[in-house]
What we know:
It is globular and about 45 Å long. It contains nine helices and eight strands. It is α/β, with parallel strands linked by helices. It has one domain: Alpha-Beta Barrel (TIM Barrel). It has an eight-stranded parallel sheet. The chain has helices at 19-28, 41-53, 73-85, 106-123, 137-144, 161-169, 187-192, 227-238, 242-256, and strands at 3-8, 31-36, 57-61, 89-98, 127-132, 152-154, 173-176, 201-203. Strand 4, helix 4 and strand 5 form a beta-alpha-beta unit.
Amino acid sequence: MILFDSHSHIDDKSYDNDLDDVIGRAENENVCGIMVVGIDIDTSIKAIKIAGTYKNIITSVGIHPHDAKHCSKKILDTLIGLAQENSCVKAWGEIGLDYNRMFSPVKDQEDCFAKQLEIAGTLDLPLIFHERDSKGRFYDILKSCGPKSRKGVVHCFSGTREELFKYLDLGYYIGITGILTIKKRGEYLRSIAPLIPEDRILIETDAPYLTPAPQKNKIRRNEPLFVKSVLLKLAEIRGADPEILSQTIFDNTRTLYNIDS
């Protein structure tokens, strides 16, 4: 079985004292790739440093919708420079809309989102999307802005069947997290996950968040090695061979992030 954690935040301070062990445990479970996702300048810089220290780690840069109110030309130019100067940067994101917590006003979120879509297109980088409770606005912006050739993944998908097919129709990958393994919270996701074409699935931890079962019952902090639990549950509900499915998803991740080897 070969695994790729396509979305993590192991730059989080909760890993500062044991990152070596975290990455070592992941390698021992055949997690052969980890994407460390940036959400602002500081996290993007830290992610790049991690990628420079450990093998088989890639990164992204971007401004999360929570921080959209701070989205300035200076910050965006800094992120563009990081993307251009560091070969480990394989995507732009995490970007999108979050109308649940509303840490940034709607207008700021939408303006920042549109600007970053344009930047990623100019840099020819795939996108990592965040969407929560946008009531269709996220999809409307994606559909109206940019080329059909744009590549990206809807991170931590937990939407409806209708939304799933809309994103698939736009050509995007679907990121599945540990929510899939949670008995009550993941029930609906488990009912529609078998509908995702095999060549459009990615698996992710979103570590340190969304710890999957059975680890959730014992450990609060998620980490990349637990992506195996997501894969196993996904294989179970799809009636698939875990080893074959893991290889397919590994290849999907390499394709999205343009990783040659």
